[in-house]
Amino acid sequence: MKKILSLLFVAAAATAYAQPKTITQAIITTKTTITSPEGDEDGITPPPAPEGAEQRRFIIGGDGETKAVTTLKGDLIKTFTENEMSRTTIIRDNAKKLTTTILEMMGNKTGFYTTDAEQEEMRKRMDSLMQSRGTQGGFANNNSGQQIVATDIRYVEETKKIAGQQCKKALIVNTRQNGNKDSSIVWYLPDVTLQGISNTGGIAAGFGSGGRTTAVTSFSKLAGFPMQYEVKMNRGRKMVVEVTKLVIDKEIADKEFDIPKDVTLKAAKDMQNGDGRMQIRIGGQGGGGQ
User: Fold this and answer.
1) CATH assignment of 21-36+60-282, given 2.50.20.10, 2.60.40.1180, 3.40.1830.10, 3.10.20.90?
2) Is the pTM for the entire model greater than 0.85?
């Protein structure tokens, strides 16, 4: 009887040990790099600006490097993103299912907020628009409009250090409605998860996309936290996302998630045009957010 009890205890201890550790406070610095084949250009011309205002179109997924710092404390997540064009701050409250976005450009700040339900409605309208144009958010157009119906994660016996952490390799293989398959290479920190965060970086990290920040939508099934991953995009482009620094031993102050006093917030649904896209005006009388 003692031997049986001892074996049961060992089995229970092994099961408990195998459970991933969930981090509730962290600071993650991430670099996203998008590259195109030589000679490829976006070829997108901004629409005419209304009289008395300067209007610019933000091309999410354009070439170049974007750095982001994500701060986590319980149900609150803040992501600060900076590139050569703009600075963006996202404050996500998972408990309230509310996302606040603050965009800084040309010395002006524009702020807007949206609920998860509103984001889902916006996403459906955008997906419909992208399908009609034969694109899917800048990703490979041979899969445009084809939802993922199955995901297979294949773990590979390879390791390497990323941001001082020993990571393992995996392949995420997605099968779509039309039968096409696409795969992404992921290097992950084993047995560690971050509360409310499946991954950082990506083409829409600075626009509060309700957790869907990249074409890789299966990170929640990964046996750890993704530290580096690659995604194929249309026209032969490639996106590489890498965590360059991970801090999990620092106390995060509540004030990190305060809305700046110089920002006037608007509802995102009041800033849409006819096809559901956001319209953000920079410059003109009153500046951003007015």
Assistant:
1) 2.50.20.10
2) no
